[in-house]
């Protein structure tokens, strides 16, 4: 057998990418949105130009423009460095969780293709939130998230009326 033939043992096998881990029903992986970060970078570049185009005196406009650009760049970098989060909204009877921590007073709001999820942690403190951009959740996962939230709402409203 020749070395370049298809049956040769020296031909390299193609590398297959590892499949993503299977999530349980009602489980969602949140990750930072590249589309959001791109828009934040665009705003970080445009903010200094807006300040310089305003009628501020030059002695004040340049420091403010620099501050606006640095603040915008910091926000864009921060949004990309956010860790991935595992959200589980499976069974309406069980408690929803984010990275294993319980989520209380869970709300899901939609603004076009964006999903805004916010909740209160049992330990108190400020409300936590996640924004699911279209590049984070595909259409099927967005539909599943919408259905899971509706199931939770239906069970909680029924329980309060039946008492």
Question: Mind summarizing the main beta sheet?
Answer: 4 strands, antiparallel
Average pLDDT taken over every residue: 80
In total, the number of strands is 7
Outline the low-pLDDT stretches: 1-21
Based on secondary structure, the structural category is alpha+beta
**What is the number of domains?**
2
Number of helices: 3
The global form is elongated
Helix content: 40-55%
| Spatial strand sequence of the major β-sheet | 1-2-3-4
Descriptive key words:
163 residues, alpha+beta, 2 domains, three-stranded antiparallel sheet, 3 helices, 20% strand, elongated
Task: Give an overview in words.
The N and C termini lie far apart (80 Å). The chain folds into two domains: 27-83; 85-163, no CATH class. It has 163 residues and is α+β, with helices and mostly antiparallel strands. The longest helix is centred in the middle third of the chain and has 24 residues, at 58-81. It is 42% helix and 20% strand. The radius of gyration is 24 Å and the shape is elongated. Mean pLDDT is 80; it is low at 1-21. It has helices spanning 34-53, 58-81, 139-162, and strands at residues 27-30, 85-88, 97-98, 101-102, 104-111, 114-120, 128-132. The strands form two sheets. Strands 1-2-3-4 form a four-stranded antiparallel beta sheet, with no helix packed on it. The chain has a three-stranded antiparallel beta sheet with strand order 5-6-7, covered by helices on one side.
